[in-house]
Amino acid sequence: MQETTVTSKPLEMGCIENRNVITTDGRMIGTLTGAWIDTSTWTITSLVVELEKDVVEDLRVKKPLLRTAKVSVPTSAVLNVGDVVQLNTDITNLSTMLAQPS
After folding, report:
1. Model-level pTM?
2. What is the pLDDT of residue 39?
């Protein structure tokens, strides 16, 4: 029997951009477009999500005049990153989380 080994590789940001972001209640809130990095610790602090039009009002986010609304979702709200980015909260709690000052 041949033994296989799995080596873990870091995910490059370009590899995970444009993934759908969903909440625990199954709502697709938008698309991952980037991340904020704390350069003093080299850790990702939040993910930048471009919101779907129908979610902007539910999250009580102010929509820019000529651009798509974007929010920074803290990494503490991320459950899993795979084919999609799965959050560990529903849309109501996410709205509350985003309303709190950073």
Report:
1. 0.80
2. 87
